[in-house]
Amino acid sequence: MSTVLSNFDTWKKFLGDRVEAAKKLGINEEAISKLAYEIGEFLDQKVDPKNNEERVLKELWDVGDEAERKTMARLMVKLAGNDS
Fold first, then answer.
1. Which of 32, 28, 3 is nearest to 16 (CA)?
2. Is the CATH number of domain 2-83 1.10.760?
3. Helix %, strand %, coil % for the chain, to 5?
4. Is this prediction's pTM over 0.90?
């Protein structure tokens, strides 16, 4: 996982591939966004940012309330989907 997190473009591609796989399994957008939020919570607590983009996302995550964090998670899913 550390290789995936070392480059933001690699991370977006990784996330986009997982979003596409989830959609092919019939998982709806709301469930994918909920999972992205849970992953965001995990990353915030357990993983140090590896690059400037991740550092900005962490800072935004840290100042956001729950609703704003859920919005960020949905936006990350959308961003990843646009790149795949």
1. 32
2. yes
3. 80, 0, 20
4. no
**pLDDT band at residue 4 under the 50/70/90 scheme:** low
Nearest to 11 by CA among 19, 27, 25, 74: 19
Q: How far is it, in rounded angstroms, from Cα 1 to Cα 11?
A: 9
Alpha helices in 1-84 (DSSP H): 2-5, 8-24, 29-46, 52-63, 66-83
No. of helices (H) and no. of strands (E), the chain: 5, 0
Give the model confidence (pLDDT) of 27-70 as tens digits.
Answer: 998 999 999 999 889 989 998 888 888 899 999 999 999 999 99
CA angle at 36 for the pair 50 and 44, rounded to the nearest 5°: 40
Q: Say how many Å lie between the first and final Cα of the chain, rounded.
A: 19
